[in-house]
Amino acid sequence: DPALSKTGPTAGSLSTTVVEPNEPRAIRDFDRDVLVGRNEELATALRSIDQTIAGRGGVLVVTGQPGIGKTRLVSEVLAAAAQLGVRTGRGTWDPDPGPPLAGWRSVLNGALGSAEVLAPEPGDGVRDAASEIYRLADALSDSLGDRPTVLVFDDVHWADPDSDRLIRRVPALAADLPLLVNDPGPPPALDPHAPPAEPFARL
After folding, report:
1. Which of 93, 130, 134, 182 could serve as 103's disulfide partner, Cβ 3.0–4.6 Å?
2. What are phi and psi of 89, to 5 degrees?
3. Separation CA 48–CA 3 (nearest Å)
4. DSSP secondary structure letters along 88-155
5. pLDDT (tens digit, 9 = 90+) per residue, 37-62?
6. Which contiguous run of DSSP H or E holds residue 62?
7. Model-level pTM greater than 0.85?
């Protein structure tokens, strides 16, 4: 779908930040209820959230070896965003085939309280894939543009084709909206036969 790779006219202003935890692990200090050993990474993520609150969208990619603490770090980022009054949503994909847009439904149920924005329009005829994805992207833009939002996409390397097409429209959305997209990234030791996490790798 070459048409889906095109970004919007303001996509050049998109802010992309990469966070790579490089310590063996982070630990939770339950007495102080804080994450220890991730101050620098959290500070970087918080700056991205501040930019989002100020109306400048972006993409935050969290990468690193399996077990290094990416999931824990992303959970802390979501918690910090929520404390600042930012709307959040998180979705994941599974290696076992699921229904189309399953991860997106989880993301939007968290951020918007429902995934109705993904429903087909009444009376719509059959659309080609690119037209339908652009329609959904426009609907997402209308739904997510009213307040700062952080969306987390886990395991996008397992995304179904429809989800993948829509994810590839996200950078254009984030360039125009107060929207921070957080991608924890695929594990480097992923099964070589698995599809690559292409949507964010191209940013």
Report:
1. 93
2. -155, 150
3. 29
4. EEEEE--SS--STTHHHHHHHHHHHS--GGGSPPTT-----HHHHHHHHHHHHHHHHTTS-EEEEEE-
5. 567 888 888 898 999 999 988 888 88
6. strand 58-62
7. no
